[in-house]
Amino acid sequence: MDPVVSMFDRMDAWRHLPNYQLERRADLLFSLYIPEALEDKLGVPILPALVPEFPVRIGAIYPDIISDKSYKIDYLGLSASREQPVFVELKTEGLSRRASQDRYLIAAQRIGMSRLIDGVLEIFRATQAKRKYFALLLLLQDIGLLEIPEELSEIMAGETLQGASCASRSVRVLTDGMRMPQIVYIQPQGEQSDVISFRQFSTVVRRHPDQVSQRFSQSLQEWASIQAGDGTLIESRTSP
Predict the structure, then answer these.
(1) Is the pLDDT of residue 94 over 90?
(2) What letter does residue 180 receive in the DSSP assignment?
């Protein structure tokens, strides 16, 4: 058995099942090539690092709702110049894109990165999962969106987290001069200016000669042309 071939064969087959969510299984694979695909789409160098499941505080984009809960953007990317943020949404089925999701993405786009980062800090102060959110702050620091004070780092390295919320108020948000985020959808089909189709994504993946990339590119071509649960596929597999 070739594990790589078997893995993709299973994704090709299992995505047609009623409760199988391909996005959750394939998102890590997509992430390996997203910066390169964004460079092709936007025409600017993109940092290799991505922020997955970037939280958008509901109270930040809808001020009339007092809430520290969040929507999630699949990936936050950033140009190498650190001037252009990019919201990336992955949709493995054409029907999985929702109008409500488009609305909060546009709302997040409009308020800009400074207020979005402020929202992340508000969530950090409110959450019981401070160590996980501190890991997010570290990643945001790595790509140049904020600067964590030494006091907060020392607190988070300790046994207790007393004073972490207070110390987080000294985090420097480094978004001056940053442009309005762009929204890009990666989805099976589409020619719109904000869409990278699976066929276009496959072209990027196919540039890499390794076995995983070549087999992934093959699956992308199938996912682009055959909708999950397509009746003709079922008929072809069950006919004598």
Answers:
(1) no
(2) P
Structural domain total, the chain: 1
Interval 132-161: pLDDT, tens: 999 999 999 999 999 999 999 999 999 999
Kindly tell me the sign of the dihedral angle through the C-alpha atoms of 127, 131, 134, 135: negative
| Nearest by Cα to 131 from 106, 157, 99 | 157
CA dihedral 141, 147, 150, 151 (to 10 degrees): -110
Q: Is residue 129 one of the residues assigned to a domain?
A: yes
Distance, C-alpha 231 to centroid of its chain: 31
Is 204 contained in some domain? no
Annotate 39-91 with DSSP letters as a single string: HHHHSS-B-S--EEEEEEEHHHH-TTS----EEEEEEEEEBTTS--EEEEEE-
Range of the domain at 132: 123-176
What CA–CA distance (Å, rounded) separates 46 from 103? 25
Cβ neighbours for 202, distance < 8 A, ≥ 6 positions apart: 217, 220, 221, 224
Evaluate whether residue 93 is within a structural domain: no
Q: Tell me whether residue 68 is in a domain.
A: no
236: pLDDT strictly greater than 60 = no
